[in-house]
């Protein structure tokens, strides 16, 4: 890209002064003429001279001093260009040079030079604010604008890989049990022997740091045995819930956990959370097939599958491996309806996309109503019988949805959202008011905030969910939800739900409802950009030694670039770009890295922009007034 140059007549400074004197004589000779042609040409001639005369061609003590001290290094620039460069980097130097040049011109007119809105130099007897007549000429200097340097270095930084990141996999339970029955107070599980299997996978290159199983039974005081990979991890009675450390029983690759109970299954508030580290940049997957938990019990077998799809849905199919008549229903909030009831064909019951879509439409819903909110498919197996029933392996819900736009190379992180405070105690670990708080790093891309809630109710109560003071659910007037066990939202739900820095989510309930501050689990998934682009220009691009602290308590000195140069991001483009990248990777803005990094993870690109013109421009004005 080049700069369009204008042809100009070259003057020496002596010639410029001579022109000014001649013009002055003309003015003095014809005092009765208020405006003369020569009068109005002064500012044009001055602009032309300053644009054409090279800085190295003038005999000016101030200029010679700047040359000898290497303040001016390019003698081929015009006077106007040199003033412009100083204006960008040092306004004081710009004013000094402009005034020293302008002071050599002996004219009776008030004259001033402006760069943008800044007065750089002037020779005047009266202020311009009191002028009766002002004559102006303008010229645009391409490539110079205040606040951007015309010479120096710029740099960008990115992570081509990481040593490891810490993230969390969470497998949520569902309301699952047998002998589903109707009671005087509503429908719920019966008491019957039940087994439920949970399958999950941890990446092969992961290092497992911590794994816990929070189990919440269908009935208070339920006796259960819990297994992980064929090891018994718990055997006994569970009242509200129990938390078991299963770190030593969890393995990389495929895992199987299961429960057996002579009473029932679970109430949907259970989860297995595995915290691990991995060198993979991306571990968050947008699933298409959501497996149903295999289970066996006594009919009616009941499984209520919770689903949260962040993006617009285009297709849903349900396929169930069973030998008994099966009913499929749908629930969203307090709205429930049946999709259909079918007998199995070749030990499989299938509900097609058309059947599901038509059922939704008949009840005033469509797929656009389902994304960015929790909804549930309710499966009942063994309709019309009281014999044994099973939901077999390879049963699933297929959901196709649009994929989000996440920059290539971005690093996704899933972490637990901690409860900041709870109040209005009800019973045991259940509270009526709870607040969660989380931090979003600079330039991060929020994907989803997701809550699994341990709930308790004794009757209809107020229910209110708020994120960053934006109301997401409010009952009344919204319908009362008996099982307020799931909640989530994405940026598509409403503007302002996610913001850089601190964010909060609050739940408020009336007297007969509460959520546990111990059995509930919340998680945030977001993506961090693995790069920062070119920033401002600086006088050097050397790099140096940088000490980086990590959240795990370790610190390490990194050599990035020239090891003999000091780390000075105020004047070094490489140092400054690395600092911007590190700030972007700091999830809680405490100056410590969540990602584990090595020196070879960084990639730096620098540019010497001393010969690269900017697309910006500054208007230069020369004004004459009286």
What is the structural class? mainly beta
Distance between the termini: 42 Å
Largest sheet: 7 strands, antiparallel
Radius of gyration: 37 Å
Uncertain ranges: 1-39, 144-149
Strand content: 35-45%
Number of continuous helical runs: 7
Give a count of the beta strands, DSSP E runs of length 2 or more: 42
Shape, please?
elongated
Oligomer description: single chain
Number of domains: 4
Helix content: 10-25%
Mean pLDDT: 87
Quick gist of this model?
The protein is mainly beta and 626 residues long.
Task: Please render the helix and strand layout as text.
Blueprint: H1 13-29, H2 42-52, H3 61-68, H4 79-89, H5 91-102, E1 110-115, E2 118-123, E3 134-142, E4 153-159, E5 165-172, E6 175-177, E7 181-183, E8 186-188, E9 194-202, E10 207-215, E11 222-228, E12 231-238, E13 242-245, E14 253-261, E15 266-267, E16 271-278, E17 289-291, E18 295-298, E19 301-308, E20 313-321, E21 326-332, E22 335-342, E23 348-351, H6 353-362, E24 374-381, E25 388-391, E26 396-401, E27 411-416, E28 418-427, E29 430-440, E30 445-452, E31 455-457, E32 463-467, E33 470-475, E34 486-489, E35 501-509, E36 513-516, E37 521-528, E38 531-532, E39 543-549, E40 555-561, H7 573-585, E41 602-608, E42 617-625
Antiparallel strand pairs: 1-2, 1-42, 3-42, 4-38, 4-41, 5-16, 6-15, 6-19, 7-8, 9-14, 9-18, 10-13, 10-16, 11-12, 11-14, 17-26, 18-25, 19-24, 20-23, 20-26, 21-22, 21-24, 27-37, 28-29, 29-35, 29-36, 30-34, 30-37, 31-36, 32-33, 32-35, 39-40
Helix pairs in contact: 1-2, 4-5
């Amino acid at each position: 890209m080049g700069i369009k140059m204008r042809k100009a007549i070259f003057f020496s400074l002596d010639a410029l002064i001579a022109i000014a004197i001649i013009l002055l004589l003309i003015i003095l000779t014809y005092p009765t003429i208020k405006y003369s042609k020569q009068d109005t040409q002064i500012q044009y001639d001055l602009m032309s001279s300053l644009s054409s005369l090279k800085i190295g061609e003038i005999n000016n003590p101030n200029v010679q001093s700047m040359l000898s001290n290497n303040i001016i290094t390019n003698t081929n620039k015009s006077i106007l260009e040199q003033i412009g460069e100083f204006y960008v980097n040092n306004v004081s130097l710009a004013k000094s040079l402009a005034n020293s040049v302008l002071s050599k011109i002996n004219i009776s007119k008030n004259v001033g030079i402006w760069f943008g809105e800044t007065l750089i130099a002037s020779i005047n007897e009266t202020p311009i604010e009191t002028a009766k007549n002002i004559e102006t000429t303008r010229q645009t200097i391409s490539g110079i604008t205040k606040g951007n340097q015309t010479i120096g270095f710029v740099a960008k930084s990115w992570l081509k890989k990481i040593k490891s990141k810490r993230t969390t996999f969470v497998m949520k339970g569902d309301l699952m049990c047998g002998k589903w029955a109707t009671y005087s107070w509503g429908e719920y599980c019966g008491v019957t022997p039940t087994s439920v299997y949970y399958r999950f996978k941890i990446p092969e290159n992961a290092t497992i740091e911590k794994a816990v199983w929070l189990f919440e039974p269908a009935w208070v005081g339920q006796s259960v045995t819990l297994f992980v990979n064929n090891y018994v991890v718990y055997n006994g009675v569970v009242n509200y819930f129990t938390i078991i450390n299963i770190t030593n029983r969890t393995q990389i690759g495929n895992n199987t956990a299961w429960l057996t109970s002579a009473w029932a299954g679970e109430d949907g508030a259970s989860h297995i959370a595995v915290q691990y580290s991995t060198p993979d940049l991306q571990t968050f997957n947008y699933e298409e097939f959501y497996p149903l938990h295999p289970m066996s019990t006594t009919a009616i077998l009941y499984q209520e599958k919770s689903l949260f799809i962040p993006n617009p849905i285009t297709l849903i199919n349900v396929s169930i491996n069973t030998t008994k008549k099966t009913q499929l229903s749908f629930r969203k909030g307090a709205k429930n309806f049946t999709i259909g009831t079918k007998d199995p064909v070749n030990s499989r019951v299938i509900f097609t996309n058309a059947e599901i879509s038509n059922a939704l439409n008949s009840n005033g819903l469509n797929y656009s109503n389902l994304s960015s909110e929790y909804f549930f498919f309710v499966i009942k197996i063994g309709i019309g019988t009281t014999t044994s029933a099973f939901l077999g392996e390879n049963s699933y819900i297929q959901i196709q949805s649009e994929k989000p736009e996440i920059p290539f190379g971005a690093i996704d992180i899933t972490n637990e959202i901690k409860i900041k405070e709870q109040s209005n105690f009800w019973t045991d670990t259940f509270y009526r008011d709870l607040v969660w708080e989380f931090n979003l790093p600079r330039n991060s891309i929020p994907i989803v905030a997701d809550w699994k809630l341990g709930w308790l109710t004794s009757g209809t109560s107020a229910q209110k969910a708020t994120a960053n003071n934006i109301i997401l659910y409010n009952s009344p007037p919204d319908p009362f939800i008996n099982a307020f066990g799931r909640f989530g939202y994405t940026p598509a739900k409403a503007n302002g739900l996610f913001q850089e820095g601190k964010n909060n989510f609050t739940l408020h309930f009336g007297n007969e409802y509460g959520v546990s501050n111990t059995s509930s689990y919340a998680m945030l998934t977001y993506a961090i950009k693995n790069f920062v682009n070119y920033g401002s220009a600086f006088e050097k691009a050397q790099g140096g030694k940088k000490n980086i602290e990590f959240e795990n308590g370790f610190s390490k000195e990194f050599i990035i670039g020239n090891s003999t140069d000091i780390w000075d991001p105020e004047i070094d483009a490489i140092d400054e770009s690395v600092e911007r990248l590190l700030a972007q990777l700091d999830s809680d803005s405490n100056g410590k890295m969540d990602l584990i990094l090595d020196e070879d993870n960084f990639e730096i690109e620098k540019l010497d922009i001393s010969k690269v013109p900017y697309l910006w421009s500054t208007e230069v004005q020369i004004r004459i007034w009286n």
